[in-house]
Amino acid sequence: MAIDPLTNDEVLAVLEDCEATAVPTAHISARLSAPKPYVTTHLQQLALKGLVGFNTHRGVRRWRLTTAAREACE
Known about the structure:
The protein is an alpha+beta fold. Helices cover 51% and strands 19% of the residues. It has a three-stranded antiparallel beta sheet. Strand 2 (52-57) and strand 3 form a beta hairpin.
């Protein structure tokens, strides 16, 4: 199985389309047609840069763009 390389910009674009709502990793993974662990790695890198935040509810991590990321996209 070959994995197409993703860029952080592609991951950010999916989150931007979600209009500031927190979405589970599985949703982002499905939109990008990429394995969850691979997408999670990108999301964690973006979180370290302060562009993405997350919360966990009932064991499901949900991701969203931070205010700084939304302002940078405008």
